[in-house]
Design a protein that fits this description.
Elements: H1 2-21, H2 44-49, E1 57-68, E2 71-82, E3 86-93, E4 97-104, E5 108-113, E6 118-123, H3 128-133, H4 137-144, E7 162-166, E8 170-175, E9 184-190, E10 196-202, E11 209-221, E12 224-236, E13 239-252, E14 268-269, H5 272-279
Parallel strand pairs: 6-14
Antiparallel strand pairs: 1-2, 1-13, 2-3, 3-4, 4-5, 5-6, 7-8, 8-9, 9-10, 10-11, 11-12, 12-13
Length: 283
């Protein structure tokens, strides 16, 4: 049981680390030389948006592999997403026992450790680094749904929102208003099919951290393409965290009801500081 407890908590804490490390992200090292000119190209964003899912809900089985500080772990589970309402990851051990959940809504981020009966709830506006960087539920929704987004905006972007640079086998899209913000993003869009192959989140205020999400293995969902492989990499100084998510039994769910977690009164609420102490081995 002790081994299971440590396994469960480390898995949940790693996911939390991935989420909160994003708020300190720095510019990814794909910066082009000064001689290259970024120009606007019409219709590219429209072509990418054509692949946006129209389904209100998506569910799938989840296989998650985690690597951090020379250690690795794998868990099973499921993922459920309801547009503009929730992203929920349920983690299981041995294919049967739910050991915890990570849940994001427009209001909060919730981590529930079901083995040790404890939880952490953080409201987006109450985390200064997230608020300052413009990281919100909409940011993670766009990343998990494989969609374009503009920092601080909630609408579906159009061609006028981006500048585009043609690379060898992809287009690099960056917000057209430049980098005068706390959070920058860039997208690598495959020229062959206009699918987003990679999303980078960055900040001009930090120089040693990068959040990168790479997509692969697209499957048909509601006559659109959806990636079944997502690889999240957080580079923080000399430390690297990697989460490989592989989806199976992908399906649209238009009838998905309210799936938000009601935390039992028997669970102990812990703080972000408590969580980070366990993650860093100081507790």
């Amino acid at each position: 049981m002790k081994k299971l407890e440590k396994y469960a908590l480390r898995s949940l804490l790693f996911l939390l680390c991935v989420c909160f490390a994003a708020c300190r992200s720095s510019k990814h090292a794909t910066k082009e030389t000064e001689k290259e000119v970024i120009t606007s190209q019409t219709a590219i964003v429209s072509r990418v948006n054509d692949n946006r899912q129209t389904a209100k809900g998506i569910r799938a089985k989840l296989s998650l592999s985690l690597t951090a500080a020379g250690r690795s772990a794998s868990v099973g589970g499921s993922i459920k997403m309801k547009r503009d309402e929730i992203i929920q990851l349920s983690l299981t051990a041995f294919g049967l026992l739910e050991i915890g959940r990570m849940e994001m809504t427009p209001q909060y981020l919730l981590i529930q450790d079901r083995v040790n009966k404890q939880y952490m709830r953080a409201y987006w506006d109450d985390v200064p680094t997230l608020k300052q960087a413009g990281i919100s539920f909409q940011t993670f929704q766009a990343i998990f749904w494989n969609e374009l987004f503009v920092p601080g905006k909630t609408y579906s972007p159009s061609d006028k929102d981006f500048s585009t640079l043609r690379l060898d086998d992809s287009f690099r899209l960056t917000p057209a208003d430049g980098e005068q913000r706390d959070m920058n993003v860039q997208f690598l869009v495959q020229t062959a099919n206009y699918l987003i192959g990679q999303t980078d989140v960055s900040s001009p205020k930090a120089r040693d951290v990068a959040l990168i999400c790479r997509y692969d293995n697209w499957a048909e969902l509601e006559h659109k393409n959806f990636p079944t492989s997502l690889k999240l990499t957080i580079q923080g100084g000399t430390k690297q965290y990697v989460a490989d998510m592989n989806l199976s039994r992908l399906q649209a769910d238009e009838q998905m009801g309210n799936i938000t977690t009601n935390v039992s009164a028997n669970y102990k609420q812990v703080t972000l500081d408590d969580i980070m102490k366990v993650l860093t081995g100081k507790q």
